[in-house]
Design brief:
There is one protein chain. It contains 21 helices and two strands. The protein has about 450 residues and is mainly α. The longest helix is centred in the C-terminal third of the chain and has 40 residues, at about 340-375.
């Protein structure tokens, strides 16, 4: 029964995030990755000088080309994050019942993450491909440390050791700041905790450290970072610039003084509370997990004090680490009430997940109609090009208005000299409703009737 419940829950989590990934539109860089840039990434040697995020780049190319891959990637990586946080909790203290409170709470906080982060993580394939998979290895490392701490009887097969070694290398090829974090964490563990591990895990720990260093070497020997060091990169810098800012400048420009003060106080309050709470609990594994997650949350963003550009996507790892601290400790405190909490939390996940999937589905329908309508207009002789606005940009990465999106125009609008007119969401939805009951011989006739309605609206 427990196994069936767990499998059902993780399948639901997988399905929710998979559908979000499949239906979210391609925006900004996504359109380039899925077309010309992605096609020439390897043939023209772009990968040698663009960045060292080789696996992240391959993933975004695949996701933007094939929707089923986006479905699998979103579903798999998010589910693994939720699963690992639950496993960390169980290493601290095994659950007496089903053991899904940490997992449900984590899913809850991911679905309700701040909109600024959501836009660049779940609402942007390019952001997801680099910043979500990169969070998995730091969590996996904490899980391994807790599992093997003062437990010297655990046996590891040679095949498992090899897989962990390869994972330690692969984990370094997604996002630079997490690459540095992985090296720091594995080195810190090797220096201060290895005496508490058995011989088998000491060997694995050596492989992890070597693998993380090899992966970091593979990443940072990319030609792009030489340009950055020399100050010859127009987009990235190690000291910030007027156009691509460091973390401090980003926070100053994106938040009002009042909001920034509240954010700083909230982080300080959370940090002090964790430190005080950690000093009072007796479970050493719980102390170790809290310390590891809290320190990782700060260390992972330290590079952005001097490195630019910094965006809200760069806060995703910190957000996940802090969420993990909160949900794990809350779960441990409320362990006696798990059987009452779990049904309520699962209902919340289903409700919020359904809402989020519906939002992404609406974005996706708008994007698909936008493409169809734009291609249809290419065959019409006129001086204007009508573009359909999204309902909002609350959950998608959309840095410019639709009529100024050069990436979209370059792919789907033949005549670049046309005057681009954006049609409000409510207006074009009204146009659709007016032709909804009509029957058409083919899709072109449908688009023709839709275009006639749009022309009336805009005149």
């Amino acid at each position: 029964m427990k196994r069936t419940t767990k499998l059902s829950f993780y399948f639901i989590v997988f399905l929710i995030f998979g559908l979000i990934g499949m239906w979210m539109p391609l925006l900004g860089d996504d359109l380039n990755w899925g077309n010309y840039f992605g096609r020439n990434y390897f043939p023209q040697g772009i990968f040698l000088k663009y960045d060292g995020r080789y696996l992240g780049d391959i993933l975004v190319i695949a996701m933007t080309k094939f929707k089923p891959i986006a479905f699998m990637a979103y579903g798999t990586f998010m589910t693994v994050i939720v699963y690992l946080i639950q496993k960390i909790r169980e290493q601290i203290s095994p659950s007496k019942s089903v053991g899904l409170v940490s997992a449900t709470l984590t899913t809850f906080f991911i679905l309700l993450m701040p909109q600024s982060i959501f836009r660049q993580i779940l609402g942007w394939h390019s952001g997801f491909a680099n910043y979500v998979p990169s969070v998995i290895f730091p969590l996996f490392m904490i899980y391994l440390v807790l599992k093997n701490y003062d437990n010297k009887d655990i046996h590891y097969y040679q095949s498992t050791t090899i897989l962990i070694f390869l994972a330690a290398i692969a984990a370094q090829l997604f996002a630079e700041h997490v690459t540095l974090l992985n090296v720091f964490n594995s080195l810190l563990t090797w220096l201060f905790l290895r005496k508490h591990f058995g011989d088998k895990f000491k060997k694995i720990l050596n492989y992890i450290l070597v693998g993380n260093v090899i992966g970091a070497f593979l990443m940072f020997t990319n030609g792009a970072y030489i340009k950055i060091l020399l100050g010859n990169d127009s987009y990235r810098s190690i000291k910030g610039s007027a156009n691509s800012e460091t973390m401090i400048n980003y926070l100053r420009t994106q938040y009002s003084s009042k909001s920034l003060l509240i954010l700083i106080l909230a982080i300080l309050t959370f940090t002090v509370a964790v430190i005080i709470y950690n000093s009072r609990i007796k479970n050493f594994k719980q102390k170790l997990a809290n310390f590891s997650l809290l320190s990782s949350g700060f260390i992972v963003v330290i590079p952005f004090l001097v490195v630019s550009p910094f965006g809200s996507r760069c806060m995703f790892a910190t957000y996940i680490f802090f969420v993990a601290i909160f949900v794990i400790n809350l779960d441990l405190l409320l362990a006696a009430y798990e059987k009452y909490l779990l049904p309520i939390l699962i209902l919340l996940i289903l409700s919020i997940g359904t809402r989020t999937v519906a939002i992404s589905h609406d974005y996706g329908k708008t994007f698909n109609l936008q493409i169809q309508y734009s291609l249809y207009q290419n065959n019409i002789n006129r001086q204007t090009q009508y573009l359909l606005e999204y309902k909002n940009d609350d959950y998608i990465w959309e840095p410019v208005s639709i009529q100024k999106d050069n990436n979209f125009a370059g792919l789907y609008i033949q005549d670049g000299t046309r005057k681009k007119i954006a049609i409000k969401y409510s207006d074009w939805k009204t146009a659709l409703n007016k032709i909804k009951s009509q029957k058409f011989k083919n899709h072109d006739d449908y688009l023709k009737a839709f275009d006639q309605q749009i022309t009336k609206i805009s005149s």
